[in-house]
């Protein structure tokens, strides 16, 4: 089996490294537009194989889509990252052109692939990939909600002073700082609602930190984060290729679910071999429904910019 990661930058290379260390495929192809860049990253990664003990072969290529043919999964990370003070939404112009061309070229070589979109603004890039690829909607998955949920669990674990692995918590809606919805009501600590352990004030602080989680890191590092985005992408790929049926909040095309249509937004989905298989209904309360509708409005207005492409 072959897995392709497009974009050998911070997120792409980190995601690729997680995938090879989990040995999810015989071959991982890393593709970048920058001459020699993916080749170099691939060589460096291959030179860790005896140290980490993996057998996946990493092939780096410069814009050579033939090498990606018959991939089971294509992960798209190509595009500009955020700089301090920038929102994910401000990347739309440049990244839409890149994602459009990358989706067309990679699907031509791997028509059966499941496509994972990481490039930002992720909700709009996922919608673009659905429209551009002509693939079944189940085969296009935007990664953002897994990352946001992982950050939500991190901030909850700090507030509760407990291991993040003891927590269940989801972020749905858009992947923007203002559009994501950390579901504090449904978050639990070993089957007890987190609201029984944290005050409203603390919970609101966790929610606020989660929503600006990406911007906080961009401010500290000077560019957008890569360890958690890369690991989140790899967790998604693992559930696809190993048919794990894990439930992750992911950005998928909605056809009436959660009251929205003709839009890609984050909702909990079962992830298996064919892509996303089923949308889970969290039975939102009225205020959560209202937040979801508001998030959809913001993402829809961002999607309208695509008409210029
Ligand atoms: N085809 C292939 N690769 C491309 C193309 C293209 N058309 N255009 C750009 N790239 C490559 C760049 O050469 C670069 O190596 O995409 C890579 C992006 O890497 P970084 O600049 O390090 O950005 P990164 O931090 O990895 O973020 C990538 O993921 O999380 C999102 O917001 C982030 O949209 C951004 C994306």
Task: Characterise this structure.
α1 packs across α9, α6 packs antiparallel against α7 and α6 crosses α9. The protein has 2 domains: 143 residues, NAD(P)-binding Rossmann-like Domain (Rossmann fold); 164 residues, Lactate dehydrogenase/glycoside hydrolase, family 4, C-terminal (L-2-Hydroxyisocaproate Dehydrogenase, Chain A, domain 2). A hairpin with a 2-residue loop joins β10 and β11. Helices cover 41% and strands 22% of the residues. The two termini are 34 Å apart. The strands form 4 sheets. A 6-stranded parallel β-sheet has the order 3-2-1-4-5-6, with helices on both faces. The mean pLDDT is 97. It has 309 residues and is an alpha/beta fold. The protein has 10 helices and 14 strands.
Layout of helices and strands:
Layout: E1 2-6, H1 10-21, E2 27-32, H2 37-46, H3 49-52, E3 57-62, E4 73-76, H4 92-109, E5 114-117, H5 122-133, E6 140-142, H6 144-160, E7 167-168, E8 171-173, E9 180-182, E10 188-189, E11 192-193, H7 200-211, H8 213-221, H9 227-241, E12 246-255, E13 261-272, E14 275-279, H10 286-303
Parallel strand pairs: 1-2, 1-4, 2-3, 4-5, 5-6
Antiparallel strand pairs: 7-10, 8-9, 10-11, 12-13, 13-14
Helix pairs in contact: 1-9, 4-5, 5-10, 6-7, 6-9
The chain binds adenosine-5-diphosphoribose.
Main β sheet profile:
6 strands, parallel
Q: Give the uncertain stretches in residue-range form.
A: none
Instruction: Kindly provide the radius of gyration, computed on alpha-carbon positions and rounded to a whole number of angstroms.
Output: 18 Å
Derived structural class: alpha/beta
Molecules bound to protein: adenosine-5-diphosphoribose
Topology order in helix (H) and strand (E) letters: EHEHHEEHEHEHEEEEEHHHEEEH
- In CATH, what is the homologous superfamily of the largest domain? Lactate dehydrogenase/glycoside hydrolase, family 4, C-terminal
Number of spatially distinct domains: 2
Helix content: 40-55%
Distance between the termini: 34 Å
* CATH architecture term of the largest domain: Alpha-Beta Complex
CATH class of the largest domain, anyone? Alpha Beta
> How many individual helices?
10
- CATH domain fold name of the largest domain: L-2-Hydroxyisocaproate Dehydrogenase, Chain A, domain 2
What fraction of residues sit in β-strands? 15-25%
